[in-house]
Amino acid sequence: PGLYHSSTKSRDTRTGVLKAVLIIQKWYRGYRARLMARLQYALTVFQSIEYADEQSQMQLSSFFSFMLENYTHICEDDPELVQRLLASQKCIKERQDYVELVGVPDSYSGPRLQFPLTFVDIDCLLEAFMQHQVLHAHYVLEVLFETKKVLKRMANFNHVRTSRYAEITICGDLHGSLDDLFLIFYKNGLPSESNPYIFNGDFVDRGNNSMEVLMILFVSFLVYPNNVHLNRGNHEDFMMNLRYGFTKEILKTKLNSKILEEVYTWLPIGTIIDNEILVIHGGISESTDLNLLHGIERNKMKSVLIPPMEGNRDRPIELKENKTGGPVTTTPEKSKANEPASEHLLKHEWEQVIDILWSDPKGKSGCYPNTCRGGGCYFGPDITSKILSKYQLKMLIRSHECKPEGYEISHDGKVITVFSASNYYEQGSNRGAYLKLCSGMSPRFFRYQATWETTLKPLYQRVNIIEISAIRMLKEKIISRKTDLIHAFQLQDRKSGKLSLGRWAFCMESVLGLNLPWRSLSSFLVNTDKDGNVSYMSSFQDIRIEKPVKEAQSTIIETLYRYRSDLEILFNVIDADHSGLISREEFCATWKLFSSHYSVPIDDSQVDELVKTMDLNKDGSIDFNEFLKAFYVVHKYEIMKSD
Description:
Layout: H1 2-74, H2 81-86, H3 95-99, H4 119-130, H5 137-151, E1 157-160, E2 168-171, H6 178-188, E3 197-199, H7 210-223, E4 228-230, H8 238-244, H9 246-252, H10 257-266, E5 270-273, E6 277-279, H11 290-295, H12 347-358, E7 360-361, E8 367-369, E9 377-379, H13 381-390, E10 395-398, E11 407-410, E12 415-418, E13 432-437, E14 444-448, H14 459-480, H15 482-492, E15 498-499, H16 501-512, H17 518-525, E16 527-528, E17 534-535, E18 543-545, H18 554-562, H19 564-574, E19 581-583, H20 584-598, H21 604-614, E20 621-623, H22 624-630, E21 633-635
Parallel strand pairs: 1-5, 2-3, 3-4, 6-10, 7-9, 10-12
Antiparallel strand pairs: 2-13, 5-6, 8-9, 11-12, 13-14, 15-17, 16-17, 18-21, 19-20
Helix pairs in contact: 1-14, 1-20, 4-7, 5-7, 5-10, 15-16, 19-20, 20-21
Keywords: Calcium, Hydrolase, Magnesium, Manganese, Metal-binding, Protein phosphatase, Repeat
Cofactor: Mg(2+); Mn(2+)
GO molecular function, one term: calcium ion binding
């Protein structure tokens, strides 16, 4: 009996321990699931705001078209602005006119490149950038001119071959993240004849080291032009650089940005691997025509924000097919023979390029406008199958979208998205990835995260950091539309100052145009009563826009804050000598045109008064950086609810 009693007690103990383990395990799984849900909400906020900004950027193309027709009538004092803004840049032919004017002083201690370049120069550059040294403008110019010369000899699409024993590595967006590029080379090896790479666009913008990333890629390309393939992304565009940071980086180096603009236009727009895998930056549409894309003069695509001129009418294009039914590879030089002397793509050509640079895949069938980004389209699995079948291809590899794990497989395995910039939105927000391909084998994926700061922290701390940053950005979007939101709230209100959660969420989505899980986010944004009703004015608590003029109307402040990025782009275009100054009259005239196009009801005299206030030294010129700083958002404090 004693032995039986002992055995029973032992079983009971084991059963109790097992139950406790299961309870703890269940709790932890629930806890982790809640954390991951919060992380997903934060990433959704980041992505929605990112795409809304890109939509604003794309909408500038319609503004520029409007500007062509109206600016000279409104701004008679500066009739040359339209030409400065929209006319194609003159070709920079004389290399020595630029390079020789920028001498390298004896005191320069940074990396020195030897032309023609060799693998030694790649090592030299990598070592220097690891030591935070800066490449002198003289060498930057040399690299840019040499890159342009080699790119001009290339076709619109690179054609590469692999075998079972020869893999190729494909990297997605880097966005100026030098640490990620270093990590890729550390894990995967430097580019070489036996270790080829495809870099699938968006080398620059957003990150802090766009110039370093660009120089490493261009130097690697010049050393191994047959083994390093560079596809153009939607950020290889000088107008995009004006908004997303690279232009400021360029100006610090005293470079002539027009040289880089030309290099962008000569980048190939895609790569085809083994005649069966298409690698492009964005995606496709139901009208994607690879035959046409092989034959266009890609260097005429100055920017997606500069639409074809009205008189640049479409004409029929005749392209032959090769014996396999695939597209003919036509170099730009060969395609010029019978074309009219135009410096812009035709409208349907321009639209084709926008589609492959800006489009995104979706699970829904069909092809419909990409309303989030404002450019390109959403394409479903049926469109993927149709286009791949038409051109006898098996797979589409693209980038363009940040993914939590660095890559994503969709459309029944026919579409792969690869994104190589880790920590894209915030430290710890996402992994980066690259993939390796060889003939007849499935892709192999490699993930990483170029940070030690956040990986050492517990998961809940990492999620809190990302969540705080996302909510902060969202609050700034909310405060920039305060007047419009209050009007929308009041239309739904019965003078109680409160709305149901559903009505509040409806107002937020309709005014801000952000498709977000507003109900789930409400706990971070507003106060609710015991019945679940929202005190809608709490949407603006603890945050405000600093006013440069006390008497200024809230509508003016919010509107100028909302459009500050667009106005900064126009400012930089108007400021042709990059002095950082434009006249008060120029800014006011530009705002008048801008408000006319966007139907923004603001009294021009009040804007003029604001601009006068910013002209502190009364010299008639404006430093736009000071102007922007005047409209900054003040957060009194951050309240984040713990799990």
